[in-house]
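Incident log, structure service

09:12 report received: a user says their structure output differs between two submissions of the same chain.
09:20 pulled the input from the user's history:
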Amino acid sequence: MPFFPFARHRARSRRRAGARTRPVPVTRAPRLIAASLVLAAAATGCAGASNAQSSPPVRISTPPSDLHAATLNTALHEPDVTLTGVSGRPVNLQRATAGKLTLVYFGYTHCPDVCPTTMADLAGALRLMTPAQRARIAVVFITTDPWRDTPKVIRSWLASFNPSFIGLTGDYSTIEAAAKSVGVPLEQPKRTGADYEVDHGAEVMPFGTDHLAHVLWTAGVSSRDYASDLTKLLARMPAATAKGGGA
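09:34 re-ran on a clean worker, output below:
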């Protein structure tokens, strides 16, 4: 069966330095449809990143009939990484979301299209669910642009979608290593000024209480489809929810 290279999202920021970063109406990106795909993972991580590791290609099968997400042939391990939360304090990803269905997304606040669209769709999905269901889900946004995305910037941006969303920033090499460990491609931007683009993968990965992701969503999933899939994933998880450490 042939494989196709995973298409990265390229987002070019057109905002001036200091401009507001609230989401704007955008056109939804089409869903990636293929029999199977390969997420290109880097062979080695950046120097100084403790969780860098070699990763083989991640194969994605055709979505199963009961989910809108694509099924992974090999499960992804949630990165055991410590970054900086919106409060300015260190946050360990696994400990902060322990006991929850954890949706991890790598992006940046100056992104003009797929990042705000994805956050808005996830926020919309949670509004379609019950309070008990929402209490068992954690949405984590990890910036791919730590130079502009300070804790304060991320907090303000995420609050426009859902104040419960967890935002993380930190050293770029640590972020890059965490992304590559789950097959998310990143490319360090050429920062020639306040306005620059950032290349990054655009998948949402749901990690269960075992810190494994068996499916993922590509760009363009609706709130209703997210809510449908999340309800089914929650039904497959233990009902008890542990309290996370927060951000």
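09:41 both user submissions now match this output. Likely a transient worker issue. Closing.
09:42 reviewer note: Helices lie at 93-96, 114-127, 131-134, 151-159, 172-181, 223-235. Confidence is low (pLDDT under 50) at residues 1-57.
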